[in-house]
Amino acid sequence: MNYEYVHTPFSIVDHGQNPNVLNTFIGIPAGDIRRGVDITELRADPVHNSEKPSVYYTENIRSRLRAYYVSTAKPAIPPTDIVIHIRRGDVGSHAPDRYTSNTDYVAIIQMLKDTYPNRLITVHSEGYLNDFKELIPEGVDIRLNDPIAVSFHCMVMANVLVTAKSGFSYTAGILNKNKVYYIPFWHNPLDDWTILTPCSAAQSAA
User: Fold this and answer.
1) Residues 47, 174 contacting (CB under 8 angstroms)
2) Which among 47, 125, 135, 165 is least buried, having the fewest CB atoms inside 10 angstroms?
3) What pLDDT sits at residue 95?
4) pLDDT at position 139, please?
């Protein structure tokens, strides 16, 4: 419709994060509202709830978002090859719509090992090492409770990213230029992502 998007910086961010720090981190400049704004929305629901988000997240738009993202300082990060985001913290087995079990991740990790042999696999999550005891024999590097900027940047830079049922890693997937595996939840995948379910992972690993 030829409207110009005017970005409003975040005023509040969930999980106690500092919005000023994260506004700088994402690099999207604040829009100039002095000329007046025709439409204001808390969020664009047609995008947020889209059945086909690639209509909005075109390669041109994703390239612009990546350019904003890399325009500001990013933290030093450990080596990233294959990165898996496992959502824990405020989500547990009591919330099955956002929870993926360690048993399911064992199948996903085996699929990744079969598909990408001899590659470093790193899990980013929250909690305690004992919460991931089923994954330790799988030979993965488990990084817990890293600063949000470190975990997010690792996901963006990964050669292979496995997203969780989480807007956090979903957003990193939008910025990621490489291979993205997507675990289904209510934000639908982009067209170039590979949909991954525990069943499909187990079949691939078999």
Assistant:
1) no
2) 47
3) 63
4) 76
Q: Which CATH number fits domain 82-205: 3.10.129.10, 3.40.50.11350, 3.30.200.210, 3.30.1370.10?
A: 3.40.50.11350
Low-confidence ranges of the chain (pLDDT < 50): none
Place of tokens 């970005």: 7
202: left (phi over 0), alpha (psi -120 to 50) or beta: alpha
Nearest-CA neighbor of 167 among 187, 197, 151? 187
Q: Got the DSSP string for 173-189?
A: HHH--SEEEE--SSSPP
Residue 198 confidence (pLDDT): 62
Distance of CA 174 to the CA centre of its chain: 8
The two three-digit tokens of residue 180, written as one number? 């993205």
Q: What DSSP line would sit under 119-152, residue for residue?
A: --EEEEE-S-GGGGTTTGGGT-EEEES--HHHHH
